Amino acid sequence: MSAPVPGFARNTQLSTRIAAHLLAQIEADGLTTGARLPTEAQLARDFGVSRAVIREAIAQLRNEGLVETRQGAGAFVADMAARPIRLDAPQDMDSRAFQQLFQLRAPLEVEAAALAAHHRSAADIVRIKAALARFDQPEESADSSVAADLEFHRALAQATGNPYFVQFLTAISDRIAHVILAARAETPLDALHAQTRREHAAICAAIVAGDARAARAAMRAHLAGGAQRVGLQLDMSD
Amino acid sequence: MSAPVPGFARNTQLSTRIAAHLLAQIEADGLTTGARLPTEAQLARDFGVSRAVIREAIAQLRNEGLVETRQGAGAFVADMAARPIRLDAPQDMDSRAFQQLFQLRAPLEVEAAALAAHHRSAADIVRIKAALARFDQPEESADSSVAADLEFHRALAQATGNPYFVQFLTAISDRIAHVILAARAETPLDALHAQTRREHAAICAAIVAGDARAARAAMRAHLAGGAQRVGLQLDMSD
DNA sequence: TCGCGTTAATTTGTCTGATAACCTGACATA
DNA sequence: TATGTCAGGTTATCAGACAAATTAACGCGA
């Protein structure tokens, strides 16, 4: 039922190991939502370390959303359903990892375009068109060009009315943009810029028209074009 | 360029406030990857708190993947591209949030099915069939039935060969399953169980056959059926 | 001059003990 | 019953110290 919680592997800190140990102990004891953990002093005795280390370990579990602490009361197992979802990026972002990240992003962008075509509000359309307009200034740095690109996709995600799409697509686009900027900091982007603008305009038109099917197709074309632009081959079947 | 980092709002701990302050200061100073933060002693003086609080604040940033610390060397701004992606679940998982979570999951499951049909290995097929076989025991608790369901979807995600799909779909399915189990702990699931098994079998067959289009369709049918089973209406266009 | 151990200063990691802030349950009282 | 008070326990924060690791300067020999 419970998935392994990432984030405890790379670090070999004492507090990190104890956090992992503590988590295993919680699961082994079958502690569920609301169950109380032993006191810090007790845990310090059990593990044979100082209370400071125990506090750091519990703080890690708290940051993962696995436990909650209340001053004067204790530490309690948090509601697992409300635990934040975490996606670990690789330590070395090679081309393979980059392609896999793009592969994860693609279907979400396509679906977001379709949802946006269905649920867009007047305010959404204003935001999307504003983001599109930022592309019309022809001469800009690569940095601001990418920023405008991100803003367009963010506005689109917002138009889905689903905050998860906003959070996730924003985060994943941000990582991808970072990689692109780091890789090719000094590449002429003029023609690419214009092409990107055309693709964005097509997506925007489909969303304004409320045509989900066209929005999907336009987004697929945009992603395929973007992948090609950064030297990536992507199978966008269906 | 940089997205706001979630997770600092609800908690009013001193160390949490200082972590947020510290992060704002990093961004304001334009510190990029590899830049070194002031020493703990210095920060303790600056903020007028003890070193323990500073350590907890830095530990939070470290857990968010924003900084890295090396004993003897100092604390450094981490590579933003490698920062883990985090998706905050809502504090109260109402039906609306549940529907939105399902809406996020659906296109990823569909894409995963298509990717699995393309990239499945012999070992993948074995795992998927094994997960399918676990469904054949008719009499089980609702808990074990959901567990078998999760295992099937996990095996499918694994067959994509993309670890991001595994991580994300596992996590999101886990949350959804928790909600389902909590909501209807005591509901007869016999007919539903059989129906789920049929849908899984259809997906499995399409993947084994290497037919991505059929896998997509079968997964869409499965998700639509699952949504209906938990009393959710889902527009699965395209 | 260049390479290479050695050393000293700096910094994070851990330990110890203490105090403040807070929560919980028992108890007394009206 | 309802309420206020109190005592004990727990987490949050503070202060100081030592251990462990890194870094850079230094001296020395080739």
Short description:
The structure is a homodimer of 238-residue chains. With 238 residues, the first copy, chain A, is mainly α. The first copy, chain A, contains nine helices and three strands; from the N terminus they run H-H-H-E-E-E-H-H-H-H-H-H.
Structure characterization notes:
- The structure is a homodimer of 238-residue chains.
- With 238 residues, the first copy, chain A, is mainly α.
- Chain A has two domains: 14-82, Winged helix-like DNA-binding domain superfamily/Winged helix DNA-binding domain (Arc Repressor Mutant, subunit A); 95-229, GntR ligand-binding domain-like (Four Helix Bundle (Hemerythrin (Met), subunit A)), CATH 1.20.120.530.
- In chain A, 63% of the residues lie in helices and 5% in strands.
- Chain A is built from nine helices and three strands; from the N terminus they run H-H-H-E-E-E-H-H-H-H-H-H.
- A two-stranded antiparallel sheet of chain A has the order 1-2.
- In chain A, a hairpin with a 3-residue loop joins strand 1 and strand 2.
- In chain A, helix 4 runs parallel beside helix 8 (190-209).
- Chain A is elongated.
- The two termini of chain A are 33 Å apart.
- Residues 1-10 of chain A have low confidence and may be disordered.
- Chains A and B meet through helix 3, strand 3, helix 4, helix 6 and helix 7 of A and helix 3, strand 3, helix 4, helix 6 and helix 7 of B.
- Strand 3 (85-87) of chain A pairs antiparallel with strand 3 (85-87) of chain B, so a sheet runs across the interface.
- Chain A binds a DNA duplex (30 and 30 nucleotides) through helix 3.
